[in-house]
Amino acid sequence: MALNYDEVVAKYDPVLGLEVHVELNTESKMFCSCATTFGAEPNTQTCPVCLALPGALPVVNAKAIESTIKIGLALNCSIAPYSRFARKNYFYPDMPKNFQISQYDEPICFDGYVDVEIETEEGPKQFRIEVERVHMEEDTGKSLHVGGATGRIHGADYSLLDYNRAGIPLVEIVTKIVPGTGKYAPEVAKAYVAELRDILRGLGVSDVKMEQGSLRCDANVSLMLKDATELGTRSETKNVNSLRSVERAIRGEMLRHAEILETGGKVKQETRHFQEDTGLTRSGRSKEQAEDYRYFPDPDLVPVKPDAAWIETLRATLPERPSIRRKRLKEQWAVPDKEFEAMVNADVLDIVEQTVLLGADPTKARTWWLGEVSRIANDKGVSITEISITPADVAELINLVASGELTDKLARQVVEGVIAGEGSPSEVVAKRGIKVVNDDGALMAAIEKVCAAQADTAEKVRGGHLPAAGALIGAVMKETAGQADAAKVRELLLKYLGQ
Amino acid sequence: MSTLSRDEVAKLAGLARIEMTEAEMVDLSSQFGTILDAVARVQELDLIGVKATSHPQPLENIARPDVVQPSLTPDEALSGAPAQEEQRFRVPQILGEE
Amino acid sequence: MIYKNATEMAAALAAKEISSVELTQSHLNRIGAVDGDVKAFLHVDTEGALAQAAAVDADRAAGKALSPLAGVPLALKDVLAQKGVPTTAGSKILQGWKPPYDSTVVSKLKNAGVVILGKTNMDEFAMGSSTENSGYGPTFNPWDLTRTPGGSSGGSAAAVSAFEAPLAIGSDTGGSIRQPAALTGIVGVRPTYGAVSRYGLIAYSSSLDQAGPFGRTVLDTAMLHEIIAGYDPHDATSINASVPSVVAAAKNGDVKGMKIGVIKQLQGEGYQKGVQTRFTESLDLLASLGAEIVEVDCPSFEFALAAYYLIAPSECSSNLARFDAMRYGLRTGDEGGASAEAVMASTRDAGFGREVKRRIILGTYALSSGYYDAYYGSAQKIRTLIIQDYAKAFTQADVLVSPTAPTTAYKIGEKVDDPMAMYLGDVATIPVNLAGICGMSLPAGLAEEDNLPVGFQIMAPAMQDQRLYQAGAALEAALSSKWGGTLITKAPALAGGAR
Ligand SMILES: [Zn+2]
């Protein structure tokens, strides 16, 4: 009888280890000057170096070193005064040189940590994830498996290789073993990857798009009995490409390990592959012999010795930690939990902050971005950061409404105009001739007309029943095509009806 | 006298991805005794405290600016390919997994 | 004209006494007449060479400023990538491969208007000392066609020695320029490591490889040296400094007051009698020219050969991994649904020769887990000791000297089945490579016992290459006046040759 999750965590302690690969967003590749544009036509971003043509030599991208050091600093790492590149030797068709330039015993950053907070039954709880190392390496090419039933590597007749991705800078972030997370292991792992993603995005060093593979996670999981002192055998699950998958993969592996242990079996140390569709992992092809990567310092590349003063300059440019920033903004803007979560999920913190910094009211800024602008972005099927309206536009808009020059309804038309490329809000207002009807004469004409048409209601108001005025105001607004200021209409209407 | 057994040669040939006949492995194994004896001389000296040299010139921090330069055209890139299809290198089915 | 020196040819071209097309054609004719016996070339680029020569002639007619060697033909070792021209590194695994790019050395030659006649034979991937390890059959020594011209740049040396080209490019990883220069009675220089770009030089051992010039005189060699040397941002191990004034030094040969150190470890036992005699004679000559001869002690040189035969194979085991039948070159065993893995192994078996396989296996062993420290690690430490020995010796002497090779040219086939005997031939040249310094071999006369050329080696500290030329030119002048011409003018005539 297999244990359920609660029974598993009551009996066993999970131990995690996470390896995250991040593609840097440099313009050019790690060791050559080819472009790194995602989704380019196959083999259009290759050269003698990244195709490993005979005679070609690597030269390190300076920006990649800078980005890696920034990552190390943001993860509270020490920066090595001396580090080297090493060759990791193994044969694989998507790796042109049949060795990967990586770092071995001399990584550029080491000994850091990341604190993550998750919600538990006892309230929010913090976990510290210790980072063992952050090092530089290069990505492989992509293979397309042709033929066979599944389209997967097994059963394929042959493969087609595109080396555009080969040589794109990768940073590998490796944690130390993470014990003590108990039943929260899957959530902690997810929170860690999410926090990493936010930190990296804040640094501006990577696109961190898990769905495009610019952030990839390998999860090591093992179980040990509660009173045991020795670690259990771990499995390494690769290909975990969304936050939700991190959580599912770890939970799944915990259950799978427990089932093996409960039936007296032994967990095999192996690489497993996560499958998005089933949420399960499957075994990789086991190798006949342990790999021997024969690491040695790459003789084509010279040591990296970052200047201490330069490191401090980089440290000074680090942005505020995302988790700390979120706390600060939530308090400053007095946003309720639910709404703040919505802002984080919609990825609007940056733009709302920029809008607020331009003088807009935080609540109004949030409402505009999450409301009207998001709606239009959704309709157009683009992300909110891609849509052509800037924080400055939204701030101006809010200003126009506050000063009574626009009603909320008119402002929505202006947003459409801005997005349609008609210019800034004031330009749209001018071009479209949008203006609040403040002309008392025109308004009075409308009011008289409405009161005549709805004489009964007008009579009620005249008799002191003020709530009835709403219907009349609405009608007047309709009459003036929304161009009137509702407060002004109310004032004139009540006066007209002797109130 | 150092030796390298036929099985060790087979394992090394596997790591180096070179197919070898039985005769080749036996042949190599028999030659390696003398060669290993000769190179093992590096262990004769007391090397404690001696730094290893991997680069003959003491260069450091050599890097290039992050600037894109033209790549090869796909035709040039694929010009040496033993087989190609859809502007990609066509290779036999891949067994391993990474 | 083909029997003249490159400098004389350059002068005749400048004076328009001859066109580059004519000069190139005479060399092509010579190749046609004698290369059937010498087999120096793997590929003769008749069309390309004549086109290049015509372009130089046109530029000269147009009065454009030309480099000193513009229009002079040259033989290029097949280890350097030349766009569109077959480049094999002497290996079957690259048969038919035409690089889509130029190596930096080739770019520099082209920019200088040097006419590239074709690609010369070599030991496969530069692994060997006799050119017998070529995948395309051996090259024969023009002094005695039953003997080897040395190696691995045997084709380039033989081409210059047989008057098929006045100049040639070789590469020197453990003596592969100096030793064949010695065995064919010409001048060869291995520049300081990092002085000539390795970009496009098909790597054997990255930390030891260096391309360099061959010529029939010290001055010719210097002229070519200045053209190919210089900083290259495509090679991270390239030295960013101005090229030493080697041409000026070659024009001002002088050893008066120069301290010349004789390395105790590189003479005596194991050196052929005639080699030792010519070496001592040259020393006496240098002393008579005003040099001070001192003896220096380099005790760790005893271990240089062992260190070399660990470092070079280790690096080559990784460098040659890229030859895997996936992207270029030979592909065998691709039938009956064979896997990529099997095709790689089959191709590497079919495409690599015996010596290459031997060194790959040795290097794989030296880097493998459990053996790294004992072999590769120790070898790198020996390297440090050799650098220290040189540093000390250069405080006692301006240049160091030794015989270039322990013997004169040996018979084809004599040492093929005894790799250790072959390796021993590199004993005097290897220390230079391990220390990354520069060295020259120039003719010291013929050994009495076999009437074959003997080489005299001069070594100088890193980036002091001009010292080689200053001392070499002085010795060359003294020897030539004694002989009544350079040694090469005493070479026997070849059948089919006009001479
Ligand atoms: Zn590239």
Structure at a glance:
With 499 residues, chain A is an alpha+beta fold. Chain A contains 16 helices and 15 strands. In chain A, a hairpin with a 6-residue loop joins strand 13 (270-274) and strand 14 (281-283).
Question: Care to describe what's here?
Answer:
The complex is a heterotrimer of chains A (499), B (98) and C (499). Chain A is α+β, with helices and mostly antiparallel strands and 499 residues long. Chain A folds into 3 domains: 5-310, no CATH class; 320-432, no CATH class; 440-496, Arc Repressor Mutant, subunit A (Orthogonal Bundle). Chain A has 16 helices and 15 strands. Chain A has a 9-stranded mixed beta sheet. Chain A starts with a helix and ends with a helix. Chain B has a domain at 6-43: Histone, subunit A, CATH 1.10.20. Chain B is flat and about 55 Å long. By secondary structure, chain C is of the alpha/beta class. Chain C has helices at 6-14, 20-38, 46-61, 104-111, 154-161, 178-184, 218-228, 246-251, 273-288, 304-319, 340-351, 354-367, 373-396, 419-424, 430-435, 465-483; strands at 41-44, 73-77, 115-120, 167-171, 187-190, 211-215, 259-263, 292-296, 399-403, 438-446, 453-460. Chain C has an 11-stranded mixed beta sheet, sandwiched between helices. The longest helix of chain C has 24 residues, at 373-396. Chain C is globular, with a radius of gyration of 21 Å. Chains B and C meet through helix 1, helix 2 and strand 3 of B and helix 10, helix 11, helix 12, helix 13 and helix 14 of C. Bound molecules: zinc ion. Zinc ion (ZN) binds at residues 29, 32, 34, 46-47, 49-50, 167 of chain A.
Pick out its properties:
A: 499 residues, alpha+beta, Arc Repressor Mutant, subunit A, 3 domains, 16 helices, elongated, C: 499 residues, alpha/beta, Amidase signature (AS) enzymes, 11-stranded mixed beta sheet, binds zinc ion, Asn/Gln-tRNA_Trfase_suB/E_cat (chain A), protein biosynthesis (chain A)
List the helices and strands and how they pair.
The complex is a heterotrimer of chains A (499), B (98) and C (499).
Chain A: H1 5-11, E1 12-23, E2 60-61, H2 62-74, E3 78-79, E4 86-89, E5 99-102, E6 109-120, E7 123-138, E8 142-146, E9 158-162, E10 169-175, H3 185-203, E11 215-225, E12 235-240, H4 243-262, E13 270-274, E14 281-283, E15 296-297, H5 308-316, H6 322-333, H7 337-346, H8 349-357, H9 362-380, H10 391-402, H11 408-419, H12 425-432, H13 440-453, H14 455-462, H15 469-479, H16 486-496
Parallel strand pairs in A: 12-13
Antiparallel strand pairs in A: 1-10, 1-11, 3-6, 4-5, 4-15, 6-7, 7-10, 8-9, 11-12, 13-14
Helix pairs in contact in A: 3-4, 8-9, 8-10, 10-11, 11-12, 13-14, 13-15, 13-16, 15-16
Chain B: H1 6-15, H2 22-39, E1 63-64, H3 74-77, E2 84-85, E3 88-92
Antiparallel strand pairs in B: 2-3
Chain C: H1 6-14, H2 20-38, E1 41-44, H3 46-61, E2 73-77, H4 104-111, E3 115-120, H5 154-161, E4 167-171, H6 178-184, E5 187-190, E6 211-215, H7 218-228, H8 246-251, E7 259-263, H9 273-288, E8 292-296, H10 304-319, H11 340-351, H12 354-367, H13 373-396, E9 399-403, H14 419-424, H15 430-435, E10 438-446, E11 453-460, H16 465-483
Parallel strand pairs in C: 2-3, 2-4, 7-8, 7-9
Antiparallel strand pairs in C: 1-3, 4-6, 5-6, 5-10, 9-11, 10-11
Helix pairs in contact in C: 2-3, 10-12, 10-13
Bound molecules: zinc ion (ZN).
